[in-house]
Design brief:
The complex is a heterotrimer of chains A (112), B (719) and C (167).
Chain A: E1 2-8, E2 13-22, H1 27-35, E3 43-54, H2 56-71, E4 75-81, H3 83-92, H4 95-98
Parallel strand pairs in A: 2-3, 3-4
Antiparallel strand pairs in A: 1-2
Chain B: H1 3-29, H2 35-54, H3 58-75, H4 83-100, H5 104-109, H6 111-124, H7 130-134, H8 138-149, E1 154-159, H9 171-181, E2 182-190, E3 208-215, H10 219-224, E4 234-238, H11 244-253, H12 258-268, H13 278-287, H14 292-299, H15 320-347, H16 350-374, E5 375-377, H17 379-396, E6 400-405, E7 410-412, H18 413-434, H19 438-443, E8 450-459, E9 462-469, H20 476-485, H21 497-502, H22 525-534, E10 538-544, E11 548-556, E12 561-569, E13 572-577, E14 581-586, E15 592-593, E16 598-601, E17 604-610, H23 611-614, H24 625-635, E18 641-647, E19 650-656, E20 658-666, E21 680-685, E22 691-695, H25 697-718
Parallel strand pairs in B: 6-8, 13-22, 17-19
Antiparallel strand pairs in B: 1-3, 1-4, 2-3, 5-7, 8-9, 9-11, 10-11, 12-13, 12-20, 14-18, 15-16, 16-17, 18-19, 21-22
Helix pairs in contact in B: 1-2, 1-4, 1-17, 2-3, 3-4, 3-6, 4-6, 15-16, 17-18, 18-22
Chain C: H1 3-10, E1 14-22, E2 25-30, E3 34-39, E4 53-59, E5 62-67, H2 69-72, E6 85-92, E7 97-104, E8 106-114, E9 118-119, E10 133-139, E11 142-147, H3 149-152, H4 155-166
Parallel strand pairs in C: 2-11, 5-7
Antiparallel strand pairs in C: 1-2, 1-8, 3-6, 4-5, 6-7, 9-10, 10-11
The chains are: A alpha/beta (112), B alpha+beta (719), C alpha+beta (167).
GO cellular component, one term (chain C): cytosol
Organism (chain C): Pseudoalteromonas aurantia
Pfam families (chain C): CheW
C-alpha cells in the first residue's frame, strides 16, 4: 500500500512524499484520503524516492496532481525519485518526471 | 500489473481454440472440407501461436508454427487435405493440448513429450513449406530485414479501453513487450486526457500513446501484442511504408485535435503528410517480394480498425470460486428470508406480511438468476464425444456414427464436469458391447453403420441425459447367468427386466466374455451408478434384444438449492422435492384397497408408503417437555395426509402426518457417514434453525419395496 | 514404544490433549483435532441410524453428525443432562476432511503431556478396541485414555457400521 505524506511548509511550499506501492491497487485509497480536495502552495515538491512500485495508474495520479497545481498557477519540482519511477518515466518518456528543476508546464501538451 | 491474469486468459482461450480445432477437424473428417473450416482451424493455431509468443512460451510457438504453416498451405490450396493429414492434425492438436498445459520448465523436463513433438513435426514435413519448417524462426527475420531496410518505423497508435487498468491490463506491459520486438524509437505519452484532481477517477486510464517502433517483426506479431485488450480499445498499427493517406486516415479517426496530433506524430518521426506519399512506398514495394506482405495487410479495409475479432464478445470470465461464494451467500439469504417469513407470519401484521412476500419473490428471482449463472449447455461435453466416438470406432474396427440432440440443454457447471466420466464410460460400453461389428450388422439386416445417440432434455424438474444405441441389446439370459455365476442372485431368483438390467450396476459385474481394453476391467458400471448417485441423480436401463439399449441418466437441475415441500412425521421434518409432487390428498377420504397399501385415485391404483413405518419413526423422548404433549396428540391418531409423487413415469403416495407447505431450501450434504442411508438425499435448515431431511423419492420407494419384500420373506419363513 | 511415545519422541516431545469425561471414565484427544466445545441444545435424530450415531446438529448453518462416543466404545449410551456438551472434532484423515460432534458429560482441561507421562495401551482390561487407544496417561491420580480420533471416528468405518445397521 502506498503511504503518502503531505506537508504544508511555511516557505509557501507543499511537500508530497510517496512511499511503498503506488499502483492500481492503492490509487483509489490514496486519492480519496489525500487528493480529492486539495490546495497547493506556490511550490509543490514531489519526493518519489520511497516508491517501491508504480504503474500507469500511479503515474496518472501524479500527472493529475501536477495538472491541478499548474491550473492554480503553482509550480512543481520532483526533488527525488526511485528506480521504479525512473524506469517507468523512461519507458513512457515522461520528461516532466525526469527533470529535477522547478517546472511550470507538463511538456508535451496541446497548445491551442 | 497482473501478468498472471493475462496468462490465465491465455490458457482459457487456448483451450477454447483447441476445442474449436477439434470440432473443425471432426467436420473435415466427416468430409466437410471448405475454406471456412480451414480458415477457422488456421486461425485457432495462429492465435495460439501468437499469444504463446507474447508470454514467451517458445515450446508452444515452435511446434504450433509448423502446424500453422501446413494449415496455411492447405488454405492456399498448395496441398490437399486427405485422410492421413487429418489424422495427423488430430494428433498435432492433441499434442498442443499437452504442451499448452505445460510451462516451459515442465516441458524441458518431459523428454517423452519433446520426442513426440519432434516426431509429429517430422511427419508434418512432407506437407510443410520446407524453408519455413526447417528454419521456423528465420522466416520472420527474412521478412524483418526487408522492413528494416526500408529505414522506416512502424507506427503504433494506442487508445486503450478506459477500464483496462481495472481489469489488470496496464499499457506499460504492452509497451515493455513491444520493446522486446524491436526498439522503441520514440514514444509520446499523451497526457491531455488526464483531468484535474476534482474530476479524476484514479482507476480509469487516461493516457494515450503514439509509438514509433523499429522492429523486424511482421504486422501480425505486433498485433498479437494487443490480443487481450478490451473490445473498446482502439489500436492502429501502420507499417513502415505506410502512406501519407494512412496517416491522414489515422488522424481522422483519433479523438484528439488534428493539429495537436500532427505535432505529436511529427515528434514520433513516423509522420508522412499526404503530399510526400507515393514515391517512397512504391520503391519499397518492389524491393523484395516478401515485403509486400505488410503493405497488403495495411491496405485491407479491416486492418486499420482495431483488432476486435480476437477479443471475446459480450462475455466476461468469472473465477468459479467467486461464483460459488455468491451462490453460497444466496443460499444463506434464502434461509434468512424464510426466517423473516416465519416471524412476519407470527405478527399477523398484514402490511408486514405483504412486504415479506414481495421480499420472498425477489429472493427467488435472485436465486434463480444466480443459479442461472452457473448453468452451461451440455453441448460442450457432448461435442467431446464426437472425437471419442471417432477414435473408439477406429480402434474397434466398427462403423459408428454419433447424433447429438439437445446440446443446448443447460446444466449446473459442477454437474457438467462430474457427468463427463460416467458418460464416457457408458458411451464406450455401448460401442464396445452394444453395437455389433459391421459383419454382424449386415447379417442381422441392419445398416452397416451403427448409430449412437446422445440426447439431453428436461423432464419434470430433472435433466435427462440418454445414451442410446441401435445395437444388439442386452442379453438378459447372459446377464442372468453371469449374476448367478458371480453369486449376486440365486439360481431360482425371479427378476423383472428392470431388476435384471440393474444387475449390471452391481459391483464387479461385467458381461463381456472377453475383457477389452476399452470397457471391462471389472471396474465399470457400478462406478457409473455411484457417480450418478453422488450427483443426486439416478440411472435406468431400457433395452430390447436386437434393437438396442438406452441408458437414461436423470439429474437434478442444480446441486445447491431446491424447491421443496415441507412435511412432518413423528416430530421429524422432511422436505419432498417440489418437482416430484403431483398433489396432496387427505388420506382418510380415500378408500384403502385391501391390505396392500394402495388407494384408488380417480380409478388408478396407487401404492403408498407410510413414512413413519419406512423410517421406523417414533416420537423422540429426548427433547423432554413437549414429548408428553406430542404423545398425547399421538394417541389421538393424527390425521394422515397423502402426498402423491411421481418418479420415472410411476405414481406413488407418501403418507405423512403434517403438511407445512412450500419452502426453498439449501441442500446441506449429510456427509460420508450417512452415505449408506437410502431415501434421504441430504439435509436442510428450516427457518427456525431446525434440521429437515431431504427425501430422495426413487430411493425412498426402493427402500419401501425392499422392506416389503423382507417382511414377506419373514412371514413366509414363519409359516 | 507406543504410538504416542513415538510421536512425542520424534516431534516436539510434548503434545497437548483435551481431556473430557463420560460417566466415570476420562478420555483425552489431541487438542489440534478439536475445534470447539458447544453446549448440548437438542439433537435431530436421523432415521434408521445405529445407536452410536445420535443424530445431527445445526452448528451455525453447518449440519454435523453427532456421535455417542460411549456407545462407539462399547459402553451404555450416554445420559443427557444439563451439563452435557458436544466436542466438535475436525479430522483431516487421508480419506477426507470430516467434522463431527462427540457427546461428553464434561470437558475437563487441556493438558500437556510428554513422553514419560504416557504408557502403552494395555493389551486387555480397558474393554476398548486396542487400535482406538493411543496410550494411557496419568493426570492428577486419574487415568486418562488417549483416543486415536482418526481410527475411532474414521468416516469409512462409521459408514460401514451404518450400512450394516441398514441391512
Amino acid at each position: 500500500m502506498a503511504s503518502i505524506k503531505v506537508t504544508q511548509k511555511r516557505n509557501n511550499s507543499t511537500e508530497i512524499s510517496f512511499a511503498g506501492g503506488l499502483t492500481i491497487y492503492s490509487v483509489m485509497e490514496a486519492y480519496q484520503q489525500h487528493f480529492e480536495t486539495f490546495t497547493f502552495k506556490q511550490l509543490v515538491v514531489f519526493k518519489l524516492d520511497k516508491i517501491e512500485e508504480i504503474d500507469t495508474a500511479g503515474i496518472q495520479l501524479i500527472t493529475s496532481i501536477i495538472k491541478s497545481l499548474l491550473e492554480q498557477g503553482s509550480q512543481y519540482q520532483v526533488s527525488s525519485t526511485s528506480e521504479p519511477v525512473k524506469e517507468f518515466s523512461e519507458l513512457f518518456d515522461l520528461k516532466f518526471l525526469m527533470n529535477y528543476e522547478v517546472q511550470s508546464s507538463l511538456g508535451v501538451e496541446y497548445v491551442s | 500489473m497482473s501478468l498472471d491474469a493475462a496468462l490465465e486468459t491465455f490458457y482459457v482461450e487456448a483451450q477454447e481454440h483447441l476445442e474449436l480445432m477439434d470440432n473443425n477437424l471432426l467436420q473435415m473428417d466427416d468430409g466437410y472440407i471448405n475454406n471456412d473450416i480451414l480458415n477457422d482451424i488456421f486461425r485457432s493455431a495462429h492465435t495460439i501461436k501468437g499469444s504463446a509468443g507474447i508470454f514467451g512460451l517458445t515450446h508452444i510457438v515452435d511446434f504450433t508454427h509448423v502446424v500453422e504453416n501446413v494449415l496455411d498451405r492447405a488454405r492456399d490450396e498448395k496441398i490437399v487435405i486427405e485422410k492421413p493429414l487429418i489424422d495427423l492434425l488430430f494428433k498435432c492438436r492433441d499434442h498442443m493440448v499437452t504442451i499448452v498445459a505445460l510451462s516451459i520448465d515442465e516441458y524441458k523436463q518431459q523428454v517423452e513429450v519433446q520426442k513426440k513433438g519432434q516426431l509429429l513435426i517430422e511427419q508434418l514435413l512432407p506437407w510443410a513449406d520446407k524453408q519455413a519448417s526447417l528454419e521456423p524462426i528465420n522466416e520472420n527475420k527474412v521478412e524483418g530485414k526487408s522492413s528494416i531496410e526500408t529505414g522506416g518505423f512502424w507506427h503504433i497508435s494506442l487508445r486503450l479501453s478506459e477500464d483496462c487498468l481495472k481489469n489488470g491490463m496496464d499499457p506499460m506491459s504492452f509497451i515493455r513487450f513491444l520493446s522486446t520486438l524491436g526498439e522503441i524509437h520514440r514514444i509520446v505519452c499523451l497526457t491531455d486526457k488526464v483531468p484535474k484532481l476534482v474530476k479524476l477517477d484514479p482507476e480509469q486510464l487516461y493516457f494515450a500513446f503514439e509509438i514509433a517502433l523499429e522492429s523486424a517483426s511482421n504486422k501480425e506479431e505486433i498485433e498479437n501484442t494487443f490480443m487481450f485488450v478490451q473490445d473498446d480499445s482502439h489500436i492502429v498499427i501502420l507499417p513502415p511504408n505506410a502512406s501519407g493517406k494512412d496517416f491522414a486516415d489515422l488522424i481522422e479517426q483519433l479523438p484528439e485535435d488534428n493539429r495537436y496530433l500532427i505535432q505529436v506524430l511529427k515528434e514520433c518521426g513516423t509522420y508522412k503528410s499526404l503530399d510526400e506519399k507515393h514515391t517512397e512506398v512504391q520503391d519499397n514495394a518492389t524491393l523484395t517480394e516478401i515485403s509486400t506482405k505488410p503493405i497488403n495487410l495495411a491496405e485491407k479495409p479491416t486492418s486499420n480498425k482495431s483488432i476486435k475479432q480476437t477479443a471475446p464478445s459480450k462475455q466476461i470470465r468469472i473465477d468459479s470460486d467467486r461464483l460459488d461464494h455468491l451462490i453460497n451467500l444466496i443460499g444463506e439469504l434464502v434461509i434468512n428470508q424464510q426466517r423473516v417469513d416465519l416471524l412476519a407470519g407470527k405478527t399477523r401484521n398484514t402490511t408486514l406480511i405483504e412486504a415479506v412476500d414481495d421480499f420472498e419473490s425477489f429472493t427467488e428471482q435472485i436465486r434463480d438468476a444466480a443459479l442461472n449463472l452457473r448453468m452451461i449447455p451440455i453441448g460442450g461435453t457432448f461435442q467431446r464425444f464426437k472425437r471419442i466416438v471417432r477414435d473408439t470406432a477406429q480402434e474397434l474396427g466398427k462403423n459408428i456414427g454419433l447424433t447429438i440432440i439437445g446440446a443446448e440443454t443447460e446444466l449446473d457447471r459442477l454437474m457438467v464436469e462430474k457427468i463427463a466420466d460416467p458418460l464416457t464410460h457408458i458411451v464406450r460400453n455401448a460401442m464396445d458391447h452394444g453395437i455389433e461389428s459391421v459383419e454382424e450388422r449386415i447379417v442381422s439386416g441392419k445398416s452397416p453403420k451403427g448409430e449412437l445417440i446422445l440426447k439431453a432434455y428436461h423432464e419434470s424438474g430433472h435433466i435427462v441425459i440418454a445414451i442410446s444405441d441401435d445395437g444388439k441389446g442386452i442379453n438378459k439370459e447372459g446377464v442372468r447367468l453371469k449374476a448367478i455365476e458371480k453369486g449376486i442372485i440365486f439360481q431360482h431368483t425371479e427378476l423383472s427386466d428392470h431388476e435384471l438390467f440393474n444387475l449390471i450396476f452391481h459391483p464387479g459385474f461385467s458381461t463381456a466374455a472377453q475383457v477389452t481394453n476399452l470397457s471391462g476391467r471389472g471396474v465399470g458400471m457400478d462406478v457409473v451408478k455411484r457417480n450418478v448417485e453422488a450427483l443426486q441423480g439416478s440411472i435406468e436401463i431400457l433395452s430390447e434384444k436386437g434393437k438396442g439399449s438406452e441408458f437414461r441418466i436423470s439429474l437434478p437441475l442444480t446441486l445447491a438449492i431446491i424447491d421443496g415441500f415441507h412435511v412432518e412425521c413423528s416430530g421429524t421434518h422432511f422436505i419432498i422435492p417440489q418437482a416430484t409432487i403431483i398433489e396432496c390428498l387427505d388420506l382418510a377420504s380415500h378408500v384403502e384397497i385391501d391390505e396392500r397399501n394402495c388407494i384408488n385415485l380417480r380409478g388408478d391404483m396407487i401404492p403408498y408408503l407410510t413414512m413413519s413405518d419406512v423410517f421406523n419413526l417414533q416420537l423422540q423422548n429426548r427433547d423432554s417437555d413437549n414429548a408428553l404433549v406430542s404423545q398425547v396428540s399421538m394417541a389421538k391418531q393424527p390425521k394422515e395426509e397423502l402426498v402423491i409423487v411421481q418418479f420415472g413415469g410411476n405414481l406413488a403416495g407418501i403418507a405423512v402426518e403434517r403438511l407445512h407447505g412450500e419452502v426453498q431450501t439449501v441442500i446441506k450434504p449429510l456427509g460420508p457417514i450417512f452415505k449408506p442411508l437410502k431415501g434421504i438425499g441430504g439435509s436442510s435448515l428450516l427457518g427456525n434453525g431446525d434440521i429437515a431431511f431431504i427425501l430422495d423419492i426413487p430411493q425412498l420407494i426402493e427402500l419401501a419395496i425392499d422392506q416389503d419384500k423382507r417382511m414377506k420373506h419373514i412371514n413366509k419363513t414363519q409359516e | 514404544m507406543s504410538q504416542v511415545a513415538e510421536q512425542l519422541s520424534t516431534s516436539t516431545q510434548r503434545s497437548q490433549y483435551l481431556t473430557f469425561s463420560i460417566g466415570k471414565e476420562h478420555f483425552g484427544m489431541e487438542l489440534h483435532q478439536t475445534r470447539e466445545i458447544i453446549e448440548y441444545a437438542g439433537i435431530t435424530e436421523v432415521p434408521l441410524m445405529p445407536q452410536f450415531l445420535s443424530g445431527v446438529i445445526n452448528l451455525r448453518g453447518e449440519v454435523l453428525p453427532v456421535i455417542d462416543l460411549s456407545v462407539r466404545l462399547g459402553r451404555e449410551p450416554i445420559t443427557i443432562h444439563k451439563r452435557t456438551c458436544v466436542i466438535v472434532v475436525e479430522l483431516h484423515g487421508y480419506e477426507q476432511y470430516c467434522v463431527l460432534g462427540l457427546l461428553a458429560d464434561a470437558v475437563n482441561e487441556v493438558v500437556e503431556l510428554s513422553l514419560s507421562d504416557v504408557e502403552d495401551a494395555p493389551a486387555f482390561g480397558a474393554k476398548i478396541r486396542a487400535e482406538f487407544i493411543q496410550g494411557i496417561a496419568k493426570v492428577k491420580d486419574d487415568f486418562v485414555i488417549l483416543l486415536d480420533a482418526e481410527k475411532t471416528l474414521s468416516p469409512i468405518e462409521l459408514a460401514s457400521l451404518v450400512e450394516a445397521e441398514l441391512q
